[in-house]
Known about the structure:
2 helices; alpha+beta; 62 residues
Amino acid sequence: MDKKVKKLLNSGVTIHTALDTKLQTQSKTAVQSKIGVNDIEGALVVIQHHTHELVSLIGGKD
């Protein structure tokens, strides 16, 4: 693990997120299933309109 990441995690900082793990998994599956060509990448971003929160973010095939 990167030294900066370790320092951040050990600093006691609290990170709040609106990510929806179920929606994140569905998004990942959708991107992976629709991109069949090896040299094509994709991304998917889902924002809840009423809360303005980012609830899912996927980039690339992996």
